Amino acid sequence: MLKPREVGELAKALDVVLSHERLGKFVQIDEDVLSFSLTRGRRLVFVLYPEDPSCYLSSSPLGLTSLSTPLSQYFRKELAGASVLSVSQAGEDRVLLFSLLVVNDVFQEERRTLVLELLPHHPNLLLLDEDNKILFVKKPSPSVLSKRPALKGMTYVPPSLPFAPSPLEKPFDLEAHNLANEEKEGLWLEKRKKERFASLFREIKTRKKALERKLGKLEKEAEEARAHLQDGEYGNYIFTNLEDIDLSSGEMDVYGVKVSLDKRKSLPQNAEAFFKRAKKAKATLLQVEGNKESALKELERLTTLEETVLEADEESLEKLAKEYRLEEKDGLKHSPLGESAILPYCVEIDGVRYLFGKNAMQNDYLSFLYATKKNRLWFHVKEARGAHLILQKDDPSLKEIETACALTLLASGKKEGEVQYAPHKDVRRGSVKGQAILRSYQSATIRHIPETIEKAFLEAKKAPVKR
C-alpha cells in the first residue's frame, strides 16, 4: 500500500510523464479497476480496491471491453480526448489531482480535476469543475452530515493528514512501481474472466464429469463381458465330454478349472447357454469399444476446449464464442474446436515441445487461443508469410531458441532465413485471421538446419491435448 510520501513522489513522476498526454479509450475493467489508454501503447490505471488502492502506468495491451456502468458511460462522454495539464498531490495525503483540459458539448475548452483518493479502506474517484464543485463521485457519502461529505454539487474538501508523513526509506522508483502493479493484473483479469464466462466453465466441467462416469460404466461392462469370452470353449467341452460329465454335481472340471452348470437344464442346453453368453460377450465388447472410443474423443475435445478457455484472454474468448457459438445451448456439442483441422502441430525434441500452425486458421488458434502464456516465446519468419510457432518452455536455452527458429523456417517452407521472436505478451492480434503485430522483437538468422531437426519436423503430429 502506498505511503503518503510515495504518493507525492508518484505525483511528481506522473506529472513529468503525463504532461500534455491525451486520455484515450476508457475501460472499466471491473467495479474498482479503471484504465485510460495513452500514446505509445501505454495505459493509466486506477485501482480502487479498499485493501490495496493504487495508480500506475501499464505497457501491457488490454484486449477487454468496458463494463457498462454509469461511471463508464459518464467518463467516456466527459473525458474523451482530455489533455493532462499536470499531476499533483493534495496536501501531503494519499490523494492525486489530475488537472485536465476538456472540450464541452458546445466545443469550448474547460478545466476539470480528476481526484484519485488512494486512502486505505476508503479509496474514491471524483471529477470536479473549475470551481472544485463535484460533478461525479464514485462512492458518494451516505449523507451531508458525514465527517467529510462528498456529494454531487458540493465543493470538494480534500482530506487532511492528521500526522506528519514519515520520510521514505529509499528513493521512489516509478518503473519498479509500475512493474509491481502489472504483476497483479493477472489476478484480477483472471477473476473477471472466470466471472464473465462462469457458465461456460461450469458446462465444460459438467460434461467432462458425465463422460468420465460413462467411461467408468463402460469399463465395468467390458470387464463383465471379458469374463464370459471363454464360455464358447466350455460349450465345446460339454459336447466333447457328454458321457463323462456328472450334471447332478452342478459343475464340471475343465482342465483344472471348476465351471458351474445349471442342473435344471440338460448338458446340451447348458452348452447352448455357454455359446450364447460367449456370443453376447463378444458383441458387448465390440459395442463398448465403440462407445469408449466416442466418449474418449469427446472427452479429449472438451479437455482441449477447457484448456483453451482457461488460457485465452477475454478478447479471444469473445471471438471464440462468436465464431464457434459457445454461448448457444448446443454450442459445445457441435463446436468444431475438437476437430483436427484447427489444432496446430507439435514437434518434441529433447523433451521440449514446439507448436506451429500450417495455415491462417491454425496460426490464429495457436497464437491467440491455444497457447497464450505471456512469457512463452513466439516465432515467425521475418518479413514473409509463414507459420506461427510457440516454444512451450519457460526460460529456454539458446540452443532451444535456435531449434525453434529452424522449425519456424521449415514450417514456412524455407531452409534458411531470418526469424523474429518475442514474448507472447508483445504479440497482438491483427485485423485479419492469422495476422500478428509485434511491439518489439529479437531475430536470429539460420543458414543451416540439422538433419535431426528436419526429421523431427517431418514426424510432427497434431498438438496434444495436455501440455
Could you explain the architecture of this structure?
Helix content is 38%, strand content 21%. It has 467 residues and is an alpha+beta fold. The strands form 5 sheets. Strands 19-16-14-15-13-12-20 form a 7-stranded antiparallel sheet. A 5-stranded antiparallel sheet has the order 5-6-7-8-9. The chain has a 4-stranded antiparallel sheet with strand order 1-2-3-4. Strand 10 and strand 11 form a beta hairpin. The protein is elongated and about 115 Å long.
Entry keywords:
alpha+beta, five-stranded antiparallel beta sheet, elongated, seven-stranded antiparallel beta sheet, 467 residues
In short:
By secondary structure, this protein is an alpha+beta fold.
Low-confidence stretches: 324-339
Through-space gap between termini = 37 Å
Helix content: 25-40%
Name the structural class: alpha+beta
Topology diagram in text:
Blueprint (H helix, E strand, L loop, with lengths): L3 H15 L7 E5 L2 E5 L5 E5 L6 E5 L11 H9 L4 E7 L5 E9 L5 E9 L6 E5 L5 E4 L36 H23 L1 H29 L4 H10 L10 E4 L2 E4 L6 H45 L2 H11 L6 H4 L10 E5 L2 E5 L3 H11 L6 E5 L7 E3 L6 H14 L5 E7 L3 E3 L6 E3 L3 E5 L4 H8 L2 E2 L5
